[in-house]
Amino acid sequence: MSEHRCGTIGIAGRPNTGKSSLLNRIVGEKLSIVSPKPQTTRHLVTGILTKPGCQYVFVDAPGQQITAKSVLHRRLNRRATEAARDADVALFVVEALRFGPEDAFVLQRIPPEQRVVVAVNKVDKLKSREQLLPFLDRLAKTRDFAAIVPLSAKTGKNIDALLAALRDALPEAPAAYPPDQLTDRDERFFAAELLREKIFAEMGEELPYRCEVVIESFKEEGRLRRIEATILVERESQKPIVLGPRGERLKRMGTQARKDMEKLFGGKVYLGTWVKVRKAWTDDARVLRQLGYE
Ligand SMILES: Nc1nc2c(ncn2[C@@H]2O[C@H](COP(=O)(O)OP(=O)(O)OP(=O)(O)O)[C@@H](O)[C@H]2O)c(=O)[nH]1
Ligand SMILES: [Mg+2]
Fold first, then answer.
1. For residue 32, which ligand has an atom nearest its CA?
2. Would you state the pLDDT for residue 145?
3. Smallest CA separation from ligand 1 atom 32, residue
4. Ligand 1 site-directed mutation target among 21, 43, 45, 102, most atoms within 8 Å of CB
5. By the 8 A CB rule, do 85 and 8 touch?
6. In the 8-state DSSP scheme, what is residue 180?
7. What is the number of the ligand closest to the CA of 17?
8. What is the structure's pLDDT at 290?
9. Which stretches of the chain drop beneath a pLDDT of 50?
């Protein structure tokens, strides 16, 4: 039996390649929120997978954008770059048959000495495997990767092969966390994220980027979790959009988020939701700091 391995794996890639979906598939829980819109992820989310002989500590990060318009976006880019750089291994996620300037931009920001494993995601969308071979060849020429693994976060195809490749790239070390620990984030964090996910699912192209969720209070009363959440918007005019006619949209988002919370926490949840204006928060360094975007 070889030595025990353990280390951090920083997930990197342009927005929307399926980084968060991949993390969730690997750990078997919805830890990181997912949407068809780019830059859904804003925080670093740790997901821990413990196997015999190896503990994988994944860090999901925001997708990096070439054009970072607001202070928030620039901070997200920085956070993502640091996550890939500071980990033991970088897991670079691309979409099968799609490697463009945005992907190259992310790859360039991973230091040359860093070990990089590539996940070529969404192979379930391909008509045939033959289509993939020239793409994999081209990819292999861009850098000296530790491994390139075609897979699907959606179907779970080849996840085992990815874990084997990552294991080989991780350092020898004892486990850093107890075997049953799934993450280092608390329930309060996931409560905010799950509600934010519904905003991404419900609202148009622009508004989700103007919203943030703040958990005002989180109380455990016996087996019930009583959670009060505020959705911050940037302008008064955005408030009625979040509320929807007769407040129905907010209610719908709240119900969906509550169901996800109950699943993740394994118990009943009461969720109260409010909408408040915090002027131009995405460009206000002070507010961003308060919200945890250093
Ligand atoms: N068909 C298919 N779709 C996928 C797969 N993985 C992710 N998706 C979809 O791709 C979209 C983006 O997924 P996310 O997991 O949010 O992507 P991300 O890279 O974390 O995105 P950001 O956080 O915005 O950077 C969602 O609509 C997912 O359902 C896959 O293996 N196959
Ligand atoms: Mg994500």
1. 2
2. 98
3. 122
4. 21
5. no
6. T
7. 1
8. 87
9. none
Tokens matching residue 7: 């280390």
pLDDT tens digits, 213-222: 999 999 999 9
Query: Does residue 40's CB lie within 6 angstroms of at least one atom of ligand 1?
Result: yes
115 Cα–ligand 2 center, Å = 21
pLDDT at position 2 is 74
In DSSP terms, which residues pair with 48 in a beta bridge?
57
In the block, residue with structure tokens 């919200």: 291
Residue nearest to atom 9 of ligand 1 (CA): 18
Q: Is the CB of 124 under 6 A from ligand 1?
A: yes
Q: What is the spatial distance between Cα 195 and Cα 185, in angstroms, rounded to a whole number?
A: 16
Q: Which residues pair with 149 in a beta bridge?
A: 119
Q: What pLDDT shows up at residue 128? A: 87
Work out the angle between the directed axes of helices 19-27 and 159-169 (0-180°, nearest 10).
Answer: 90
pLDDT for the residue numbered 67 = 87
Helices (H) and strands (E) in the chain, counts: 9, 9
CB 198 within 8 A of CB 91: no
Cβ–ligand 1 distance for 158 under 6 Å, the answer no
Q: What is the phi/psi pair of residue 41, to 5°?
A: -75, 130
Model confidence over 250-263: pLDDT tens digits?
999 999 999 999 99
pLDDT of residue 1: 57
